[in-house]
Design brief:
This protein has 346 residues and is an alpha+beta fold. The protein contains ten helices and twelve strands. It has a domain of 96 residues. A hairpin with a 2-residue loop joins β10 and β11. The relative contact order is 0.15.
Length: 346
């Protein structure tokens, strides 16, 4: 090997080493999707385990992830030595190289406490948010059965075991049909004291829709022929063109969904978990078993058992996703000073 050849090889090695120390832009896509996936999965598990904890009359605990910082670095070094003797060719060549790589993500957690806990979990969902969800295309049955406690005194089921007034189910069926027929419009107006919801009944609807609307007026004690109805928060209507609606808080919604957990019978009979009425129709199906399940939408362990939602149960998956979206739009309030846990991950 000639000295020129050796120099060429060394230059190539140095160029390769210099290229290796760069962090490629493609790592941004990898980090973003990997962390996003894990964040979504951990959020589902946290929500599921808190629904289970409430069924066991245990306090829910929520940890917010306030920041994720991922720092990547790469480094490289190459050494080369060449010793030439009197002959044209080198008699000794030494080449050495090393590289370093590090990825040091840091995740910061903060528990939901104080004012943020009150506004996120204990404050009822605003009626305007309920009707915005209807406007965005979510099924009428799902939205009303999950978020609404009563309409003009017609009560929905309660987490403590109270079954729904049969007229509440009839109302949700009517509203679903009327909405599908295009006979009911929803308007959310911005007013000085907040958002107001107005329901507009179309006069050019079909015979079937008009019959449904007449029945809904009868159940809700609304004025005959009223075409514009205001929706307010409350349990008692003040006049015949008003729908007084009580809505549930996120905590109450989780308690209601907890009725659908297949808790081991021994836990109920021993007084470890809250019983539910035998004739109560659950909104969601959450399975349980002694060992970790496979092929699930979400799963979490608690008190020696596993609880999960089947990946093939589309209805329960949709309702659980709806619950998580409600968390996202709930009033969060101001972040209060509290304990912050920062965990560097290696």
């Amino acid at each position: 090997m000639t000295a020129r050849t050796v120099r060429t090889v060394l230059v190539c090695l140095l160029a390769i080493a210099a290229g290796c120390v760069n962090v490629p832009p493609q790592s941004m896509s990898t980090d973003r999707f990997d962390y996003g996936h894990e964040l979504a999965e951990s959020w589902k598990r946290q929500t599921l385990i808190n629904v289970v904890r409430l069924r066991y009359v245990d306090a829910p605990v929520f940890m917010d992830i306030t920041s994720i910082i991922s720092s990547r670095s790469r480094g490289g070094r190459i050494d080369a030595g060449l010793e030439l003797l009197e002959s044209p060719d080198p008699s000794s060549i030494g080449v050495g190289a090393e590289g370093t790589w590090s990825n040091t993500p840091t995740v910061t957690y903060q528990p939901i406490l104080g004012d943020k806990f009150t506004k996120s979990l204990l404050r009822p969902v605003p009626p305007a948010a309920v009707f915005r969800m209807l406007e965005s295309g979510w099924p009428v049955h799902m939205v009303l059965n999950v978020t609404v406690g009563s309409m003009n005194g017609i009560k929905n089921a309660a987490f403590a075991g109270q079954t729904a007034d049969p007229r509440f189910g009839e109302l949700t069926d009517i509203l679903a049909r009327v909405r599908a027929a295009g006979a009911l419009d929803i308007r959310v107006e911005e007013r000085p004291n907040g958002e107001a919801v107005v329901l507009l009944i179309r006069g050019d609807s079909s015979h079937e829709a008009r019959a449904d609307i007449a029945r809904a007026r009868d159940i809700l004690r609304l004025d005959a022929g009223s075409s514009e109805l205001s929706v307010v928060f409350g349990s008692v209507q003040s006049h015949g063109k008003e729908i007084a609606m009580t809505t549930r808080s996120m905590l109450e919604i989780m308690l209601v969904l907890g009725n659908g957990i297949a808790v081991p019978e021994a836990h109920v009979s021993q007084g470890r978990a809250r019983p539910v009425a035998a004739d109560l129709r659950p909104l969601i199906r959450i399975q349980s078993g002694p060992s970790a399940p496979v092929d699930t939408y979400a799963a979490a362990p608690y008190r020696g058992h596993w609880y999960w939602i089947e990946d093939t149960d589309l209805g329960s998956k949709a309702l659980f996703s709806f619950l998580m979206i409600l968390f996202s739009i709930a009033e969060t309030g101001q972040t209060q000073d509290g304990p912050v846990v920062t965990v560097p991950t290696r």
